[in-house]
Structures are given as structure tokens and as C-alpha cells.
Design a protein that fits this description.
Blueprint (H helix, E strand, L loop, with lengths): L16 H15 L10 H11 L8 E3 L3 H10 L4 E3 L2 H6 L11 E2 L7 H8 L3 H7 L2 H4 L3 E4 L3 H12 L7 E4 L7 H9 L1 H5 L5 E4 L6 H12 L4
Parallel strand pairs: 2-3, 2-4, 4-5, 5-6
Antiparallel strand pairs: 1-6
Helix pairs in contact: 1-2, 2-11, 5-6, 6-8, 8-9
Pfam family, one: CbiC
Family: Belongs to the CobH/CbiC family.
Organism: Nocardioides deserti
Length: about 220
Amino acid sequence: MSTPTRPRHHYTYVDRGADIYRDSFATIRREADLSAVPPSAERLAVRMIHGSGQVDLAADLVVDPRLVPAARAALEAGAPILCDATMVVRGVTRSRLPADNEVLCLLEDPRVPGLAQEWGTTRTAAAVSLWEPWLEGAVVAIGNAPTALFHLLEMLVDGAPRPAAVVGCPVGFIGAAESKQGLVDLAADHGIDVPFVTVRGRRGGSAMTSSALNAIAQEEE
């Protein structure tokens, strides 16, 4: 197989990966108002903005000040990361994980279709029910399905084991804003106090969520 030849430059652009990262983070810090973000979560906010391309995201972030320390300590102790979508799993930079942590998505479990049909819900929500053996002290990352976040909250209200932290950033027009508000209100409404990060409104997604995980996993920006 022949080695490809690089095309001639016809455009002026930054093409070295390290330079792109450095300039991106510098631009975010210059343009975004991070004054309302807890100091421990500033790098988290920068990476989430980087994952979305939207500097105004900072105004909609809701970050528990304990989130980054709690989640990082859990990962350093070997806790797994439980993801609602394969896209979130794929976005995790494994080299940043401090303990070669498991990153799990159970959507392909053969029990999922039957549970979803029986319960009249999405497969993503049904898959969340299978997290229970790993849930105690885990880092949860929901970046796709509002039904997954609602299902997790209902499990916690019903007495399921508590994770160490929740990155709850599902995206969409139906239920996304409401599920994230449920996460914000979980402690006040049900006395279940779990450190979390979320973004108000419809915005969210797998890229934003995996960006948050990558920031949590390692202090280095």
C-alpha cells in the first residue's frame, strides 16, 4: 500500500494538535465569563465549552463545588464510569484515566430490549437499571437521553446505591431541560445529595459530557 502525499497548503490554518488545544483554551478563557464557576471546576467549564464551541455555555452551567474533587477521588480509587451512550464512551481519553478505570455502557446488554418494551420506555433508560451492581461510588455520565437521567433519579429516589458524582447533560427538545432541573432539585426535593454538573436548558450532548469526564479525570488542561 502506497504512502499518501500531503496536499499543498491552499489555506492558512493552525494544524498542529498541541497548538490547536493551547490556542482553543486561551480563546475560551479570554471570551468566556467563568466568574460564577467554582474555582475547582474552572478547567471542567473550559473543557465543556471546548466540547460545545459555545462560550456562553458558562452562564448555564450548574456545578456543585464538590463535583470535581469527589469525582476525581472516585476515579483515583478505581471507580467505574457509567455512560448512557456509546458516543460518551468513545469520547473519553483513556490515557487521562488515573486507574485504568472501566468505562461502561450497557445498551448492548441482551436484557435491554425486553425491559424497554415491558416498561414502555427507551432502551437507554432500561440500560440504566442494569447499572445497579456498579452504581455505588461510580461516576455517572449521561450525555444523550433525558429518559436515562429521569430513570437514574427515580432509581435514587427508590433507594438505589448512590454514585460518587453525576455528569448529567442530556440533550434535546423533549425532557432534557426538565430532567436536568430534576437533578438540580434532587437534594432539595428528596434529600439525596450527590455532587453533579449539568447545563440548564436544551443544550448538552455526548461531546460536552465526555469533555467533562476528561477534565475530571486529570487536572492538566
